[in-house]
Write a structure and sequence with these properties.
It is built from 17 helices and no strands. By secondary structure, the chain is an all-alpha fold. It has one domain: Growth Hormone, Chain: A. Helix 5 packs across helix 8 and helix 12 packs across helix 14. It is found in: Cell membrane.
Length: 423
C-alpha cells in the first residue's frame, strides 16, 4: 500500500488530528454507507409497497442519474461557494431527502427523494477529501489514511447497517442515515473553520469541453459499460438471492441476511481498492490490469447467470465480484487522472458523470429484462456490458498508451482515485 509511510511524521500523528478532521471523517463514513445502505431492503420495499423489482431498483437509478449529472457541475459549484459551503450543502440535502424517503408511503416518492439524496451525495463526495486535507494539522499523509479508512468503513458497513435497521422496518435505514448525517452536519458547522483561501473559479462548461479529450472519453465510455456489471451485481442481486434462498427452504431470509452478504462484498471492494490495486498496477501496468479485471468479472457474472438458482454460487459470486470491482474502480480512476493534463477536479467530474450514467441505466434495464427473460438475463446483460467495456478500451488503446508511463503517485493522487472510483 503506497499510502502508508511508517517512518513519517504524518503516520505517527494519525490519531492526533483536529476535531474538525474527525467530524468530517465521521460524515464520510455515513455518506459512503449510502452506497450499499438501500441494497438489503429492496425486496422489503418491493413487498410492502406493492412495487415490482423493476420499480424498486429505480431507487438506484434516480440516485445515480442525479449524482452523475451533478458531477458535471460540482467543480464549478465548489469554486463559487467554497469547499465548506459545498460540503455543508451536500450534507443538508442528504439529511432532508433521506428523512423524506423514510417517511414516504409509495415507491414513486422514494425514487424521487433518492434523486435529491444523490445530488447531496455528489456535492459532498466532490469536496470531502479536500476538506479533510485542508483541516489536517498532523500531516497530510495521516489525514489521507484516515479518510480512506472512513471510506472503506462506510462501504463495508453500509449494507450491514441497512440490513440491521431494515430487519426492523424498511424505513429504518433512511431515518438512521438522516439522524447520523445530521449529527455530522452539526459537528462540521461547529468545528470546521472556513478556509482562508478562495478557490480558483472553474468555468461553467469546463467538464463538457473536457469530453473533447479522446483519452478521457475512451475511459468514460469504458466505465459506463463496466458499470452495467457493477450495478447489476449490487442492485439486482438481492432479488435472485431471495428467490434462491426460498427455493432451498430458507424462509427466514431478508434484510439482515442480505446485509451480511453485501457487507462481505463491501469489505472485499474496500480492501482491494486500497491495498491490491496499487500492487497490481506496479507489477503489470494499468491497461493489463483493466483488461484482466473486466474479463474476470465477466466470467464471475456468467457463472452467476448459469447457476442463478444456487444460493451458494450467488453469494460466492457477489463477494468475489467485490474483490474485482475494488481493483477496477481504483485503476480506472487512476487512469483518468493520468490520461489528461486537465485540472484534476474537471477530469474526475467529467469521468464520474459519464460513468454514473451506466450505473443509472443498469438497474432500470435489469428489472424489465428479468421479468421478460428470467432471473439469469440481467447477469448476461452485465457480461455483455463488461465485454463492451473491454472492446472500447482496446479500440481506443492508442489514446491510452501513456497511462502506464508514470505509475508513481503521490498519496493525494491515489486517495483521489480511490475516492472517485468507490463513490
Amino acid at each position: 500500500m503506497t499510502l502508508t509511510h511508517p517512518g513519517s511524521a504524518g503516520s505517527a500523528s494519525l490519531l492526533r488530528q483536529p476535531k474538525a478532521v474527525w467530524a468530517v471523517a465521521f460524515a464520510c463514513v455515513i455518506a459512503f454507507m449510502g452506497i450499499g445502505l438501500v441494497d438489503p431492503i429492496l425486496p422489503a420495499i418491493s413487498h410492502e409497497l406493492g412495487a415490482t423489482p423493476a420499480q424498486a431498483m429505480l431507487l438506484f437509478t434516480s440516485y445515480l442519474l442525479i449524482t452523475g449529472f451533478a458531477m458535471f457541475f460540482t467543480s464549478w459549484v465548489s469554486s463559487r461557494i467554497g469547499v465548506k459551503g459545498t460540503l455543508l450543502t451536500g450534507l443538508a440535502l442528504i439529511v432532508v431527502f433521506a428523512a423524506l424517503a423514510g417517511a414516504s408511503n409509495s415507491v414513486q416518492a422514494i425514487i424521487g427523494y433518492r434523486a435529491g439524496w444523490g445530488l447531496g451525495n455528489a456535492l459532498f463526495i466532490s469536496t470531502a477529501l479536500a476538506t479533510i486535507v485542508g483541516a489536517a494539522s498532523g500531516g497530510v499523509n495521516s489525514a489521507i489514511i484516515l479518510y480512506e479508512a472512513a471510506l472503506g468503513l462506510g462501504i463495508a458497513t453500509g449494507p450491514l447497517l441497512g440490513g440491521a435497521l431494515g430487519s426492523i422496518s424498511w424505513r429504518g435505514p433512511f431515518f438512521g442515515t438522516a439522524v447520523l448525517m445530521a449529527i455530522g452536519l452539526v459537528a462540521i458547522v461547529v468545528l470546521l473553520a472556513k478556509p482562508a483561501a478562495k478557490p480558483d473559479p472553474v468555468p461553467f462548461g469546463a467538464t463538457f469541453r473536457a469530453l473533447r479529450n479522446r483519452a478521457l472519453l475512451t475511459l468514460g465510455l469504458g466505465a459506463l459499460f463496466y458499470n452495467f456489471g457493477f450495478f447489476v451485481l449490487l442492485a439486482y442481486s438481492p432479488f435472485p438471492l431471495e428467490t434462491a434462498a426460498h427455493a432451498q427452504g430458507i424462509e427466514e431470509f431478508g434484510a439482515h441476511q442480505l446485509g451480511l452478504i453485501f457487507c462481505g462484498w463491501g469489505l472485499g471492494l474496500a480492501i482491494t481498492s486500497v491495498l491490491v490495486a496499487p500492487l497490481l498496477t506496479a507489477r503489470f501496468g494499468r491497461r493489463r490490469v483493466l483488461y484482466a479485471m473486466l474479463a474476470l468479472l465477466a466470467l464471475d457474472m456468467a457463472l452467476m447467470a448459469v447457476e442463478v438458482g444456487s444460493l451458494a454460487v450467488l453469494v460466492t459470486g457477489i463477494v468475489v465480484g467485490g474483490l474485482f470491482l475494488g481493483v477496477m474502480n481504483t485503476v480506472l480512476t487512476e487512469s483518468v487522472m493520468e490520461a489528461t493534463d486537465l485540472p484534476r477536479s474537471v477530469a474526475s467530474s467529467t469521468y464520474s458523470g459519464i460513468r454514473f450514467l451506466g450505473g443509472a441505466l443498469a438497474p432500470a434495464f435489469a428489472g424489465v429484462i428479468a421479468a421478460q427473460w428470467g432471473d439469469s438475463a440481467p447477469y448476461w446483460m452485465a457480461v455483455a456490458g463488461l465485454l463492451l467495456s473491454i472492446g472500447v478500451l482496446v479500440t481506443g488503446r492508442r489514446h491510452l498508451a501513456h497511462i502506464d508511463r508514470h505509475l508513481a503517485e503521490t498519496p493525494l493522487e491515489e486517495a483521489e482515485a480511490i475516492t472517485v472510483g468507490d463513490a
